[in-house]
């Protein structure tokens, strides 16, 4: 019996161990799930408030004189005298003597013409006396009626009169040629470039200088279709005082001048697809021809809109954007992805708003944007006044993240971005200006406009 127990006991132990092992394999222990607590993330947020936003359409151009041209010689001659103001940058008034050509030959021609006129006039008086004498002889001989033209020497009288007219015209032309040896200023202005010097012989039609009138400056400003749609200007000339104002800022330098849009050009630039508007301003004393300027054109005011820093906008995820578009179409409301074509509106944009302590992505309609701010349409964006909008850079954070918001104002949030935006603007303007050189007001300025004016 004892021997049987010794034999069965190890078998029972092994069998029990195998049974326990099989049970544990079939029924492994499971850890009870514990809810993970996510610490709220601290962010900066601003409350939405309705406000009015003045729109400024940006463009770039160069200062040019409204009246500019070449001073050209009308007679041949040797340059004998040059005025002190006749040099690059010199100022002159209308009628001032700028150049004097050698006038001796023209003085002699005038004397010859005057002498020829005296001779022709004397011949005319003599022929008139003969005509009168012929008429008296006709009556003295008792002939009836008026004498014939030949009898009264009318052809000879008319020839003498024509000779006087010709001589007088020769004298007037000699006087005009003599007067043209004095090159005078046609208007108040300045000299851009002088092309002749004392002692130089010039021919008729020779360019003497490049000058411009100093009364009014012009700036050609290229704008794209979205900017033009916002301005809504009539084609061609704009009635006096009816064009929008434009603030011009010199770059570099920072001088500012007030101008006004006076007309739009007739054709769209085929290279850039942009139309040039022309702004005029009275001559600023501290301005220079060819100076590069940034223009901010007054394009009206958007009423009762939400204004947020540009950095608060995010690109909407494709799926979310499609869902929002379908929802908006179903409700008959414009969606941000398609709204505002030609109106400077953004597409596929969203804001992160704080709702119930968590971040939520909200698709929005951007009515307008510049380098610093974005203007949101309250009606089609599903936002309410007083809602909190995230301003902190969160990268690719997913909506639903618990947050703790610290309130800031839109001015405070925008101030942090001002230095960065200005640097980006100056860099873009420098790149465009450096690429095109002297034609920055054409294609290069247009590209800069698209980058800055539309944001």
How would you describe the overall organization of this protein?
There is one protein chain. The protein has 455 residues and is α+β, with helices and mostly antiparallel strands. It has helices at residues 2-26, 104-140, 154-179, 225-231, 318-331, 378-381, 410-436, 440-452, and strands at 41-47, 50-65, 68-72, 77-82, 91-92, 97-101, 182-184, 189-194, 201-202, 207-213, 216-223, 245-250, 256-264, 275-282, 292-309, 314-315, 349-355, 358-364, 366-369, 373-376, 388-390, 403-407. The strands form four sheets. Strands 1, 16, 17, 18, 21 and 22 form a six-stranded mixed beta sheet that branches. Strands 2-11-14-13-12-15 form a six-stranded antiparallel beta barrel. The relative contact order is 0.17.
Write the layout of secondary structure elements.
Elements: H1 2-26, E1 41-47, E2 50-65, E3 68-72, E4 77-82, E5 91-92, E6 97-101, H2 104-140, H3 154-179, E7 182-184, E8 189-194, E9 201-202, E10 207-213, E11 216-223, H4 225-231, E12 245-250, E13 256-264, E14 275-282, E15 292-309, E16 314-315, H5 318-331, E17 349-355, E18 358-364, E19 366-369, E20 373-376, H6 378-381, E21 388-390, E22 403-407, H7 410-436, H8 440-452
Parallel strand pairs: 1-22
Antiparallel strand pairs: 1-21, 2-11, 2-15, 3-10, 4-6, 4-9, 5-8, 6-7, 8-10, 11-14, 12-13, 12-15, 13-14, 15-20, 16-17, 17-18, 17-21, 19-20
Helix pairs in contact: 2-3, 7-8
């Amino acid at each position: 019996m004892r021997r049987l127990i010794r034999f069965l006991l190890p078998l029972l132990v092994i069998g029990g161990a195998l049974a326990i092992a099989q049970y544990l394999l079939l029924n492994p222990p499971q850890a009870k799930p514990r809810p993970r607590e996510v610490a709220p993330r601290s962010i900066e947020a601003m409350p939405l408030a309705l406000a009015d936003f003045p729109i400024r359409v940006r463009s770039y151009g160069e200062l040019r004189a409204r009246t500019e041209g070449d001073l050209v010689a009308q007679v041949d001659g040797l340059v004998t005298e040059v005025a002190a103001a006749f040099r690059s940058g010199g100022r002159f008034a209308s009628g001032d003597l700028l150049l004097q050509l050698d006038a001796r030959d023209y003085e002699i021609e005038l004397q010859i013409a005057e002498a020829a006129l005296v001779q022709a006039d004397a011949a005319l008086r003599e022929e008139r006396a003969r005509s009168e004498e012929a008429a008296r002889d006709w009556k003295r001989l008792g002939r009836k009626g008026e004498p014939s033209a030949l009898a009264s020497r009318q052809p000879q009288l008319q020839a003498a009169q024509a000779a006087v007219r010709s001589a007088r015209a020769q004298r007037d032309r000699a006087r005009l040629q003599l007067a043209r040896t004095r090159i005078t200023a046609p208007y108040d202005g300045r000299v851009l470039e002088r092309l002749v010097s004392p002692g130089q012989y010039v021919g008729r039609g020779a360019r003497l200088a490049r000058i411009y009138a100093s009364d009014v400056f012009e700036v050609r400003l290229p704008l794209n279709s979205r900017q033009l749609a916002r301005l809504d200007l009539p084609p061609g000339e704009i009635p006096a005082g009816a064009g929008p104002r434009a603030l011009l800022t010199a770059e570099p330098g920072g001088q500012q001048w007030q101008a006004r849009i006076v007309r739009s050009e007739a054709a769209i630039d085929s290279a850039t697809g942009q139309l040039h508007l022309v702004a005029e301003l009275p001559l600023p004393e501290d301005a220079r021809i060819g100076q590069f300027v940034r223009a901010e054109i007054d394009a009206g005011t958007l009423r009762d809109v939400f204004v947020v820093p540009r950095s608060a906008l995010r690109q909407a995820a494709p799926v979310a954007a499609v869902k929002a578009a379908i929802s908006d179409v179903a409700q008959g409301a414009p969606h941000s992805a398609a709204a505002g074509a030609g109106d400077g509106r953004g597409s596929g944009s969203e804001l992160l708003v704080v709702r119930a302590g968590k971040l939520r992505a909200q698709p929005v309609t951007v009515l307008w944007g510049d380098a610093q701010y974005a203007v949101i349409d309250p009606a089609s964006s599903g936002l309410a006044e007083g809602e909190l909008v995230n301003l902190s850079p969160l990268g690719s954070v997913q909506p639903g993240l618990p947050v703790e918001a610290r309130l800031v104002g839109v001015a405070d949030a925008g101030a942090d971005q001002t230095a960065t935006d200005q640097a980006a603007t100056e860099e873009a303007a420098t790149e465009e200006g450096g690429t095109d050189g002297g034609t920055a007001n054409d294609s290069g300025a247009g590209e800069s406009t698209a980058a800055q004016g539309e944001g």
